[in-house]
Amino acid sequence: MNDDRPNGLSDSDCEELLAGRGLDLPVGAMLNALHGRLGDELPGEAAAMAAFRAAALGGVAAGRRARVSARLAAASIGGSVVLLGGVAAAASGQVRHDIGSVIGVHQHHHGSPTDTGVTPTPTPTLTPAAPGVAPATTPAGSSNGHNGKAHQGHGNGVGIGETAQPSHPAQPSHSARPSHPAHPTKKPHPTQAATPTHTPTHHAHPTKRPRPTQAASPAHTRTPGGHSPL
Amino acid sequence: MTTSEFADLLRDAQRGDELAFNTLFRQNQPIVLKYLATIAGAAAAEDLAADTWVSVVRDLGRFSGDEPAAFRAWVLSIARRRWIDDVRRRTRRPEALVDVIPDVTAAAEDVVGASETAAGTRWALGLISSLPPDQAEVIALRVIGDLDVHETARIVGKKPGAVRVLAHRGLRRLAEQLGADQANVGVTNPVPPAIDN
Q1: Per residue in A108-156, pLDDT tens?
Q2: Residue ranges of the domains in chain B?
Q3: Which positions in chain B touch A50 (Cβ < 8 Å)?
């Protein structure tokens, strides 16, 4: 550039000085003095470290807040899923059916064409004309040996249809109430006869005929007349 | 410090290691102070340096360089922004400024001996501060910050050629102040003529 300045510093001299060389020049020694320390202490060190600690603590707190927020978001999503599931179940009628199953209210479902597997009319396989076919459609009656004789005289077909229902014999709520069929003035529910815990002592009443569906129970060993075949 | 050592140090500091951050601070704070003393004056240098380190702490996690020079350039660029903010704030709210520019001749002594002392450093800073601001800043970044012409140009927002010209002009002016006629003699008696009686 301009190498003919009175001070005699060429561009190359300047680059040498800026690179830390050329200390034999007074300006070089002066530039070297810039690398010295201003003092033994470092002003602002305590403040900088305090700011660093505060930032580090802030980062920890921010991370803690982020974790809590993530948990809350996950919980809200889970709650939403459960809520939607409940709404869907209520809309489909499943909740009403389940509640009815739990509290044992089945009368509302009897005879309903939409009930699962329940036919309101008696099936020919359970009629006395076809005694040997009934056990094939009612698993509970497959080992009683009556071959459908217990259904004689029933006629309405309601109990037959209920015993053919696949889901009701497995209801635990009926077996938990063994005293209900023994009520003298109350007609036991036909499906209760399908429960394996049904005791035969209730049907030994001399003036009461056993219900047709009760004869379908595998634990039932009584004849329709209350006498044991043994 | 090697690049890998600095990378480990920086990573530890970014993870919250106080010792690592203190090491970075001790390595760079003298440079920040001298740079700010050159462009803003010695009186404002400490306050501006404190603001600088607050910003460094805040943005340390976002720095992604792995070399000491890159970190130094980053810190000095933050210091420059804090200085510009301070100048704007003072412009909006004028106050009685007491520009503390050291008397160049008052601290005149043997440059060789002075280079090892704090007084010599302050004297050299005073000389640099007597230059036009753009020349003083470029020389400070190149000499104090030990940055190359490209890093310096990026910080001051000029082209490398312009930075080079500013640095050369500043050095020639410094040489004139120190006595161009004694430059060829050497540094055995570099005391400015004004007090060399």
Answers
A1: 555 444 444 444 554 444 444 444 444 444 444 444 444 444 444 444 4
A2: 1-98, 101-191
A3: none
